[in-house]
From TrEMBL:
Residues reported in the UniProt entry to bind L-methionine: I432, G433, S434, E485, D600
EC category name: transferase
Its job: Catalyzes the transfer of a methyl group from 5-methyltetrahydrofolate to homocysteine resulting in methionine formation.
Ligand binding (5-methyltetrahydropteroyltri-L-glutamate): R15, E16, L17, K18, K114, N119, R516, C517, W562, E606
Any Pfam family hit: Meth_synt_1
Keyword presence, Transferase: yes
GO biological process, one term: methionine biosynthetic process
Protein name, UniProt field: 5-methyltetrahydropteroyltriglutamate--homocysteine methyltransferase
Organism, as annotated: Paenibacillus cellulosilyticus
Cofactor note: Binds 1 zinc ion per subunit. Binds 2 Zn(2+) ions per subunit.
NCBIfam families: met_syn_B12ind (TIGR01371), PRK05222.1 (NF003556)
């Protein structure tokens, strides 16, 4: 049995690529230095895999920014506006990735989107009518040669034609089908060149196959690959899928002349059943994703080995691999020195997953011998209990009844009670929570973490900041104030650190996009709130003003979706535990006279299943109730807000209404307000604050522009339901533009109000 890796992380164990790239962008590092870093990283990743005896080591999984953008450039898919800049190929690439502003012109970056059901974001290729698709790049071949010089024959990786066309945006009148001929020639040229270079295998990634497919899409996939494979020559072609099962096209894959088919047995809930039902074509190699490529837990060999045995009954040649690219997990446990061994022994990051594959291969070669020391050691880890669970948390979750998920009285009655109580003007103004995290705010936190200042000094600084922030908000005339979130580094990490049950790493970075990496907390045990987390700061803010101050919390679904989750209990059970902890905080805030509380669910959509048919059953059926659990215990005159980002809510708008908040603010300034049409179409009851300006840019919107925006909203929304606010938190902005923008926002609201 052999082993294969779909892709390895590329930013470096200590984020070397991030820093080298940023230095290059800033002009503090040269292109040679950036290239040198890239060469070293690639070599070290190949050697690590070689050292673990991985048989199919990928190349071209490296990227300076994004793999789909690499594939677009490989095939000359570069919009005119970037060509016109007249830059070098790499600079053109960075212009597409990050935008360009300089002596050659001024263009924005390509749109960035979430890569399937991960927190990784890809750059959306744009195909113009004039696009001359053809093989134009050399990166794929250069990296193959680079590895070959190190004595390693790699399996080059590229995104497949179907996924490329499915994710691309067509900017003119032409469609995917108009480009079939050119795309086919491009991929054929890649195969021809790989044959010349002596490649044995090539991996063509087609993750789009795990989504719902129409018959037309399956026909397109079939047409593309039939033509490409007809000219493949000696190189073997592996079609690699991941992030789910291929229930719509399993037999199509079997019938096409691929040499290998890569299937995901971890997230693909039906993969094994498909193999059992339809068998596996003779002569083809099954690349079986059996080690989770997305989570950080050690693999349980007992389970995996019996899975491999089951697969082997249907396929003669099985290659063991991870379920997806290791891009989605951190590098190595070697750089985690603070967590005890009793914890880290349960973890496997990318490097440790290589070792797991090597061990599984060894045990399989020993006829699955349960007396192998590798097996025994692994089994020991899973036979005991990992930690002392919190029986009280489990009992509390088990005792929940329908009533715990239902807030009473119903919305309409609450809305009236709250209007009477708060007596806010029409079109009330507010912000989303955070105010600029300026250098002094970050320095204060850093000094405290280093131990350079006492906790008291640290807090006093935050109290002073809050006082200034409240005074300024009052001065410009906002209606509902916030404390500013100066104590928070990040909306999830802050709560993770305050709750029991999370583990934190020092260097477990995962690429989110380009040079941006995140360090998700790990849900280690049962989640419990042992002490209030936000009450002190919120109550202090409230004590300074007669205006309402919104308490500010992160919701259970967002905390869950931005953490590494447990595998020993369901996501639903984890969500309920977190929801109970947030519920306690909500009730504590309420008891401290904080009568408006915002519970952010910025990442509600993040784990929405890829197939719409699974949305309710596998996700929304518990995610929405988990949110309701956080606030169902408050009084009718406590107002619950929520906030959401990333603008694509139209298709889950009913579920959002079913969260039963009193007010929802969301990002809308960059989209076309079509969300408001969806809201109207479903009879949305919750009051809404669609963001009236984009906080992702330092630009200060004019009063007129804001008035026009509000006017457009009022064409569609009842003024009694409309709130006025920016589209997200202000933490990434500077002070000057923040206050200038907010003043304009208030002026615009006042002027529009006067006309109602
Ligand atoms: N309350 C958070 C803030 O203002 C919300 C952040 C977010 O939606 N991403 O920063
Ligand atoms: Zn937001």
């Amino acid at each position: 049995m052999k082993t294969s890796i779909i892709g390895y992380p590329r930013v470096g164990a200590l984020r070397e690529l991030k820093f080298a790239s940023e230095n290059y962008f800033k002009g503090t590092g040269t292109l040679e230095q950036l290239n040198q870093t890239a060469v070293e990283l690639r070599a070290s990743h190949w050697k690590l895999q070689q050292a673990q005896g991985i048989d199919y080591i990928p190349s071209n999984d490296f990227s300076f920014y994004d793999g789909l953008l690499d594939t677009a450039c490989l095939f000359n898919i570069i919009p005119e506006r970037y060509r016109e800049l007249g830059l070098s190929p790499l600079e053109t690439y960075f212009a597409m990735a990050r935008g360009y502003q300089g002596e050659h012109g001024d263009v924005k970056a390509l749109a960035m989107k979430k890569w399937f059901n991960t927190n990784y974001h890809y750059m959306t290729p744009e195909i113009e009518d004039s696009a001359a698709i053809r093989l134009a790049g050399t990166k794929l071949f250069d990296e193959f040669n680079e590895a070959k010089q190190l004595g390693i024959t790699t399996k080059p990786v590229l995104v497949g034609p179907f996924t490329l066309l499915k994710l691309a945006k067509f900017t003119g009148s032409k469609q995917a089908t108009d480009f079939v001929g050119a795309i086919v020639e491009g991929y054929k040229a890649v195969l021809a060149q790989l044959n010349t270079l002596g490649a044995e295998w090539v991996q063509v990634d087609e993750p789009a196959l795990v989504t719902d497919l129409s018959p037309e899409e399956i026909a397109l996939f079939t047409e593309l690959h039939t033509q490409i494979l007809a000219a493949k020559g000696g190189v073997k072609v592996l079609v690699q899928t991941y992030f789910g099962d291929v229930r719509d096209c399993y037999q199509t894959l079997q019938s096409l002349p691929f040499d290998g088919i890569g299937l995901d047995f971890v997230e693909g809930t039906q993969t094994l059943a498909l193999v059992k039902q339809h068998g596996f074509a003779q002569g083809k190699v099954l690349f079986a994703g059996v080690v989770n490529g997305k989570n950080i837990w050690k693999n349980q060999y007992k389970k995996t080995l019996s899975l491999i045995q089951a697969i082997s009954q249907h396929a003669a040649q099985v290659v063991l691999g991870t379920s997806c690219s290791l891009l989605h997990v951190p590098y190595t446990l070697k750089n985690e020195t603070k967590l005890p061994e009793s914890t880290t022994k349960y973890f496997a990051f990318a490097e440790e997953k290589l070792q797991e594959l090597a061990e599984l291969k060894t045990i399989a070669s020993l006829e699955y011998s349960k007396s192998s020391p590798l097996y025994i050691e692994n089994d020991k880890l899973f036979s005991g209990s990992r930690f002392a669970g919190d029986a009280s948390v489990q009992a509390r979750a088990a005792a929940l009844t329908d009533a715990d998920f239902t807030r009473l009285p119903a919305f309409a009655e609450r809305e009236q009670i709250q209007k009477n109580k708060f007596n806010l003007p029409l079109l009330p103004t507010t912000t989303i929570g955070s105010f600029p995290q300026t250098a002094d705010v970050r320095a204060n936190r850093a000094s405290f973490k280093k131990g350079a200042i006492s906790e008291e000094q640290y807090k006093q600084f935050n109290f002073d900041k809050i006082a200034q922030c409240i005074a300024q908000q009052e001065e410009i005339g906002l209606d509902v104030l916030v404390h500013g979130e100066y104590e928070r580094n990040d909306m999830v990490e802050y709560f993770g650190e305050s709750l029991d049950g999370f583990a934190f790493t020092q260097n477990a970075w995962v690429q989110s996009y380009g040079t941006r990496c995140v360090k998700p907390p790990i849900i280690w045990g049962d989640i419990r709130r042992s002490k209030p987390m936000t009450v002190e700061y919120s109550a202090y803010a409230k004590s300074l003003t007669n205006k309402p101050v919104k308490g500010m919390l992160t919701g259970p679904v967002t905390i869950l979706n931005w953490s590494f989750t447990r595998e020993d209990i369901s996501l639903k059970d984890s969500a309920l535990q977190i929801a109970l902890a947030i519920r306690d905080e909500v009730l504590d805030l309420e008891a401290n006279q904080i009568d408006i509380i915002q519970i952010d669910e910025a990442a509600l959509r993040e784990k929405l299943p890829l197939r719409q048919s699974d949305w309710q059953s596998e996700y929304l059926s518990w995610a929405i109730p988990a949110f309701r659990l956080t606030h169902s215990g408050v009084q009718s005159d406590t107002q619950i807000h929520t906030h959401m980002c990333y603008s694509q809510f139209s298709d889950i708008i009913r579920d959002i209404d079913a969260m039963d908040a009193d007010v929802i603010t969301f990002e809308a300034s960059r989209s076309d307000l079509s969300i408001i049409d969806s809201i109207n179409a479903c009879g949305f009851k919750t009051e809404v604050g669609p963001g009236v300006y984009d906080i992702h840019s330092p630009r200060v919107p004019s009063v007129d522009e804001l008035k026009q925006g509000l006017g457009r909203m009022l064409d569609k929304i009842d003024p009694a339901k409309l709130w006025v606010n920016p589209d997200c938190g202000l933490k990434t902005r500077g002070e000057a533009e923040t206050w200038a923008s907010l003043k304009h926002l208030i002026e615009a609201a006042q002027e529009v109000r006067a006309t109602l």
